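The instructor's notes for this session suggest beginning with a concrete chain rather than abstract definitions. Hand out the sequence below and ask the class to guess, before any prediction is shown, which regions might be ordered.
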Amino acid sequence: MKVLVGAAAAVIGLVLVVALAITGIVIADEDASATETTDGGGGLQGVPAEFRKWILKADAACKEPAMVPSLLAAQLYQESKFKTSRTEATSHAGAQGPAQFMPGTWATWGRDADGNGEASPWDIGDAVMAQGRMMCSLLKQARNSGYPGDVRALALAGYNAGWGRVQEFGGVPPKSFAGGETYNYVQIILSTMKRFEGPGLLQVTGSGTGPEALRKAATRMGTPYAYGGGGPSGPSTGFCDGTNGYLGGKCAASSTVGFDCSSLVQYAFWPKLKLPRTADAQFGATSNRPVSRSDLKPGDLLFWAHGGSGFIYHVAIYAGDGNVLHAPRTGRHVEVAPLTSAMPQTDYVGATRP
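After discussion, reveal the predicted structure:
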């Protein structure tokens, strides 16, 4: 159910008034175990196969740091439980399709994304891509608004109630607004995102410190790189130091919520193993347990230094099958890459087992 009091105002600045007929709000998160889902990939899991490719495509089309596949997936689940039939995906207020667009809002955001000759809120591709475009715009507005709180929460409130309501309250509308629908809508989606954070393209087996750390790090695939960002509690904005963190001549790190290479490693092993913050310090803390390249196991740490000696500038986690999981550099995301090409081979120093 959506409040939708002018969702198009997110872009054109109009505050529309729509009568609210709220008969009840689902606070408890329903179990999605009955949903036939994909086996993960690209940092996404637990999503019907026909939705997955479009969610990943919509995420890739948005350059806002706070946009991740799990956000769109959790939002779709809250909106429609991934339903597409007209009887199951039409709200009492007239919102339509899996992303629950009102006709007026659809006129702004709808496109023929799947190329079937018709832009329809009932077509999965059209609906998800429109959802992604609208959320991307709202995330940008939220980031530039100066309003307190998580930009994702602000954007979700704008999607549900219209950006005009976010402006009216200077943030997410309180519980007193619309019987708490928008407030609860935001809280439920943010709390269920983790369900859809998948192991990416990685299938991690085994137990123990290394596999467990790798499995944890894999849930962050798709998270942007942010120099100086991230830590034991998760991703955060970073900083630029005169050399690092820049993209296109501008400091990207300070406005990007993400990890750098060593914070991803620290996050992965914490709190079972409290590694230091930097790649160089992590090498120093584990160098007494070296591992040869022929004996690498999932969860081992790999290190690089310019010319193969001196200051360690990069660390990655061995992911098995000759691949590593790492946060490579500004402008990229946490990803799986071949060990042979993740960084210059001449810079490879060696591996350790934490």
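Then share the key points. DSSP finds twelve helices and ten strands in the chain. Confidence is low (pLDDT under 50) at residues 1-40.
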